[in-house]
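[job 0412] stage=fold_complex status=start
inputs:
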Amino acid sequence: MPNDVLTFKRGGVHPEDRKYLSSKKAIEILPTPKEVIVSLSQHLGAPAKALKAKGDKVVKGEKIGTASSFISAEVHSPVNGTIKAIKKVTLANSVSCDAYVIEVDQEAPEVDFVKTEWKNKTKEELLATIKDLGVVGMGGATFPAHVKFSIPKGKEAEYLVINGVECEPYLTSDHRTMLERAEGVVEGIMIIARVIGAKKIIVGIEVNKMDAIKHLREVIEASGYQIQVQPLKMKYPQGDEKQLLSATIKKEIPSGKLPLDIGAVVSNVGTCFAVYEACAKNKPLFERIVSVTGECIKEPKNVLAPIGTKIGELIDFCGGFTEEPDKIVSGGPMMGFSFYDLETPIQKGTSGVISIKIENIAPQTACISCGKCVQACPIGLMPTMLYRNINVGAYDMALNKYSLMDCKECGSCAFVCPAHIPLVHTFKFGKKMARRKK
Amino acid sequence: MRVVSSSPHFHSKNKTSSIMWNVSIALAPASIWGIYVFGLRALLVLVVSIAASCLTEYLLGLIDGKNGLIKSTLSDGSAFLTGLLVGMNMSPLVPLLVAIIASAFAIGIVKWIFGGLGQNWMNPALGGRVFVFFSFTSLMSNYAVPRTLSVVDAVGSATPLGFVKTSIAGGALNLSPTDLMNQAGYPVTHFAQNIASSTGISPYAIDAFFGNIGGCIGEVSAFFLLIGGIYLCAKKIISWHTPLSYIGFFAVLTWLFSGYRSGLGFASGEVLTQIFSGGLFLGAIFMATDMVSSPITKKGQIIFGLGCGFFTFLIRYFGALPEAVSLSIILMNMVVPTIDRYIIPKKFGTVKKVREAK
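[job 0412] stage=fold_complex status=done
writing structure:
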């Protein structure tokens, strides 16, 4: 029933959502910065291969990096300008990779992108466009979209589930996208549905965005498409595809499998809009909406910024800090990455930049086996047992008996842990050690 | 200074110390009732137990803190809680030295030598109590009569459980516990008599429920312990799984089989008097739910509760000694690592294997 408020069954936590800081702020366009840093690793998978050299002139939307393997994506220049250097940069997630430093030519004429009618294109043409224009998953994982939308022979995508959940606290970029760019999102959904051949389309949105649910329903009704908008209860981590599918189509993805194995494809609303821009406007993915928010930001905003914008400039655009934050996080506070360098550029997957004070500090105490982490885990793992085994170096035990690799680091366990044990940190470490041992 | 650390960057308000203090708060109604019915001597026992427990924790912290082995956990309230529980498990007439020994044993031996908070396999307070019970049995079995019971004589100074047990051992057959107590003229409050005459429930069960019986300071009032338990459930510190499966299974076994010992046969047991008296409520709500020494998963907690109920039934009706609740919880504490090893929650996405048609 479309009006029943659904949610996933197992585990989950209820962090305060703090979205009020920026949820009412309309998208603002950032004035083009003087310099952008565009990394070649904008996506999950192999970094793109550089196509330009130092000193080359580039125009907005020109391809500057090309996919180097199957799971990889194209990279386009977000600005008109000259490549000043190609250097190693450290991204917010502490990954180091090659990046173009592009000096912006403010005098250059604006580039126009030619509109086309996507309905006249075939499935294959649409998929080629999505690949060629560098669309990746905008929810944060940045999985190359063309790979996700290529349905292998023998598989069928019955459901297309659109992710408008945005369960991470603070972030509002998807919320604003649904409010201000609904028409584009809906067109994008229909393009994806045609590419993958989906029969049923469901958009999942948490009930803290009732305005988005209402608006999207109106737009869908006006367009005449068959899309169901499904309200969902507020619960973290509902935005994960496993939990989203369990909430919307009541099916669980088996361990180690993909949504496609249960006949579904999940896509973020931001991705839908990017697909629409690529297929209907010929516009490559080179800009995105970033929620610049948090208690330490003077004027939280949702900013449309070119990829490669330095985070410091975004923060300046929002009035700077009211006080020095304890943490600056790229992404949401539950799964995002904290970093310190304000020169760090935004990526295709940067949904938000939040500047926060550390709250609820308490000393780490011994594990008292309260089992809160076990109840919170949406995957049904035993975080406390994983922690104990990794701590004594029993990686095999953690891996085989307690299914370490099924952990997706959503942070629910560490969020509720009364002993303030750095569980996710330990699991990341454990995964690395377990891989090394193999 | 900007901190770079692993996600999550957001934390709930949960704290170990708030769990410990909340359990202490939940114990407050029952302890206040104990102080009210047994007088200031009860308060003294509680204070001495808490002080001894905190002091032991502090002193051991000084020794081990220097070596950097175990940090003192005095501030998290766990030593206070252990001391309070030890005190509540003492008769108000117990010599203060016994209470001190129990507290020191609980913290020093049961908790500290295994590695401090989180590492003990047995509930410290129970360990302390059982240790002094078997060391000073006569001192520990000297129960006071609550001030709410009007008649004070030799009969009244035995706890209902002890009284029934000795009577049956002395050859009183074919009588239910209530009849036995009636015959001996076991004291009962007017309040309980009034309710009993209008509802038909045994007046001894009513007295036991509200705490008008002899016993340890903290265990006499099932009613106030229940209030504490509901508070903890509402705060999501404990869950209903252990107490309910414990008390429920014990009640079922009592109803079905306890009649046999007095020759009354199957399904003739008196349930209410049995579950409200003795340390069952204190044990089931506050001791069996001790996070450290009970299973992690809900399923495991139910198994744990059933085991506790079974052993309490065995020891209370067929054992030579009292201490059914303490001993059965300690017995089950030993099984916890095994329960935790085998009871693993079903992982997301594991589906029943469908047998393929050939």
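[job 0412] summary: The radius of gyration of chain B is 22 Å.
[job 0412] exit 0
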